[in-house]
């Protein structure tokens, strides 16, 4: 289970307390009340994803930073200082993750105080305070509370290193180690007054440790060598284990584990994968919504279905989330962001990442259905004007700017990309079919165009597509294009664009012409003069020559279909969302594995769940 916190340095604060002796966190006095909740005995899976901003809203640069969790347990006695479990996710954008240890959840109740400390070069930059509540576990409650001070525990465990550096001189090693422990205690006591590690306690621990070391005979070279051999063997075994396929059940961050029935089906599915060929999973239209109240289909189980696709992580080259990753209908904007971040976290980090992972935007991903409801005066509309998820937010949540899988993106972080796979002679391109002009506003201050119904492409992306993504493609390469929306233009694409009851795919015909120019090795000037969607793109593929496009793979329709009247395979895939309000595993929803058979010029699809097996010639 993951939770998200956002802090703004310089704005978020709480009032001073009158009596420090009876201090307790009270969010009513805070300008930015943040909270976490867990249950006793939880360990490791309670992950906290933190975003830190400067007062002007820009991200706090966390380059070179470490993260400490510090707190006083609900019993008012024991303390936590954990400097071990913080992980930087995106330093430039102020994002880190903290994996809370089980020792933090030993006592039920509300923490006396809890905060993250951000440290750089030994200096404390800031503290991020929040309310931490631990729910009681009435079944298993045998975890004994204790102080948990990871800097001391780390130092405690390094005594053997001290002995090694002292060439077996035990007295010299102990003297240096005791000095470092004393320095650490001084640092901790100066840093947080609530930590009461006394010299008496340390002396007792040292005496116990000295007796154990002497009793074990660690000072003899033979015993020392034997223990080092054991350590080396353990490391080798761990490395060997890492080379083996890791089942996604051990990596799941969010969502339910794979059921035994689905695992049996997936194991059979795995046995059919030809790893000598290029393999791509297209996982589209999952419509995730953790708090969804829709009864006739199952948004809550979308991440469970994602985990079935991730089960093939070690066998395929890439997994593409094909848009409508979230359902986007919740009235709460924070709820929408939580859905998107949960989906992104599981997609990007819920597997060992042998395969590349890319996310496309769909027409539900910006949450604009709520905006449409509001403007229509629908009974489902929120009470106040609803925010929508911006392009910038989508980029941030899916960490586009990190280029996690070596892809190429326009300006380094666009919602469209390409990547070459030289071993398979494949160029993969992902496009943003919801490229609405966010800078064009309606009278109410919101986006003029509602993403739910206004799909399409604009000048910058189409120019990049024609003159970057489709250029310098080697003659023996095959190109595969993934996108959310279909390639079939409609009569409504250039008219009545503010009519929210009509679906528009503006500049879809123009995109198709670029693809046809690429396939045929020709040039043209492609234009459209629709207001706010004006384009003029010059293509030139004459020198490059003709190239192969195996397929234009898309979702959106929720059903399977193939058309070729645009001059290429326009392949529609079944949706991943369950069509009932229950999690019936492979009995509803599905996803598609595409395998490129270059020798026979075929793109083959193998279906999971409701998806079927198909073959496409190119």
From TrEMBL:
Record-linked SUPFAM superfamilies: Metallo-dependent phosphatases (SSF56300)
Pfam families referenced in this protein's UniProt entry, alphabetically: BppU_N
Residues of the BppU N-terminal domain: 26-160
Name used for this protein in its record: BppU family phage baseplate upper protein
Originating species: Pediococcus acidilactici
């Amino acid at each position: 289970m993951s939770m998200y916190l956002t802090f703004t340095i310089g704005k978020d604060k709480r009032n001073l307390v009158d009596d420090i002796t009876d201090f307790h966190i009270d969010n009513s006095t805070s300008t930015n009340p943040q909270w976490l909740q867990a249950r006793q005995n939880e360990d490791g899976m309670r992950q906290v994803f933190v975003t830190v901003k400067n007062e002007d809203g820009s991200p706090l640069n966390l380059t070179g930073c470490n993260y400490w969790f510090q707190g006083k347990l609900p019993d008012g006695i024991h303390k936590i200082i954990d400097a071990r479990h913080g992980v930087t996710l995106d330093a430039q954008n102020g994002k880190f993750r903290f994996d809370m240890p089980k020792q933090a959840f030993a006592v039920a109740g509300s923490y006396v105080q809890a905060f993250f400390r951000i440290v750089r070069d030994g200096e404390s930059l800031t503290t991020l305070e929040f309310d931490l509540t631990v729910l009681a576990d009435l079944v298993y409650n045998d975890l004994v509370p204790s102080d948990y001070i990871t800097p001391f525990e780390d130092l405690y465990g390094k005594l053997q290193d001290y002995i090694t550096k002292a060439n077996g001189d035990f007295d010299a090693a102990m003297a240096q180690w005791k000095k470092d422990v004393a320095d650490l205690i001084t640092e901790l006591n100066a840093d947080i007054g609530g930590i009461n590690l006394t010299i008496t306690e340390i002396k007792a621990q040292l005496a116990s440790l000295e007796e154990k070391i002497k009793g074990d005979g660690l000072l003899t070279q033979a015993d020392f060598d034997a223990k080092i051999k054991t350590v080396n063997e353990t490391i080798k075994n761990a490395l060997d284990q890492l080379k083996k396929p890791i089942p996604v059940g051990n990596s799941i961050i969010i969502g339910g584990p794979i059921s035994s029935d689905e695992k049996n089906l997936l194991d059979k599915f795995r046995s059919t994968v030809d790893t000598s060929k290029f393999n791509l999973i297209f996982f589209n239209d999952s419509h995730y919504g953790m708090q969804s109240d829709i009864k006739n289909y199952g948004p809550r189980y979308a991440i469970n279905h994602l985990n079935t696709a991730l089960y093939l992580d070690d066998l395929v080259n890439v997994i593409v989330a094909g848009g409508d990753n979230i359902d986007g209908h919740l009235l709460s904007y924070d709820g929408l962001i939580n859905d998107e971040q949960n989906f992104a976290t599981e997609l990007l980090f819920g597997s060992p990442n042998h395969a590349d992972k890319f996310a496309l935007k769909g027409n539900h991903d910006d949450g604009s259905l709520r905006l449409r409801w509001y403007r229509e005066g629908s009974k489902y509309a929120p009470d106040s004007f609803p925010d929508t998820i911006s392009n910038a937010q989508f980029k941030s949540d899916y960490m586009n700017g990190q280029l996690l899988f070596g892809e190429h993106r326009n300006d380094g972080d666009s919602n469209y990309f390409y990547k070459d796979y030289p071993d398979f002679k494949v160029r993969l391109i992902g496009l943003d079919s919801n490229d609405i002009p966010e800078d064009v506003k309606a009278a109410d201050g919101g986006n003029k165009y509602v993403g739910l119904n206004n799909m399409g492409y604009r000048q910058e992306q189409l120019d990049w597509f024609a003159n970057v993504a489709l250029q310098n493609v080697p003659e023996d390469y095959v190109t595969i294009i993934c996108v959310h929306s279909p390639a079939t233009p409609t009569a409504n694409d250039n008219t009545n664009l503010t009519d929210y009851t009509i679906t528009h795919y503006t500049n879809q015909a123009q995109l198709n012409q670029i693809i046809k120019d690429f396939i045929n090795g020709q040039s043209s000037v492609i234009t459209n003069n629709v207001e706010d969607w004006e384009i003029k793109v010059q293509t030139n593929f004459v020198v490059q020559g003709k190239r192969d496009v195996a397929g234009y793979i898309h979702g959106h329709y929720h059903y399977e279909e193939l058309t070729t009247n645009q001059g290429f395979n326009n392949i529609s895939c079944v949706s991943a969302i369950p069509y009932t309000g229950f999690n019936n595993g492979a009995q509803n929803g599905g996803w598609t594995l595409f395998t490129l058979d270059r020798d026979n010029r075929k793109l083959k699809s193998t279906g999971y769940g409701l998806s079927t097996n198909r073959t496409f010639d190119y």
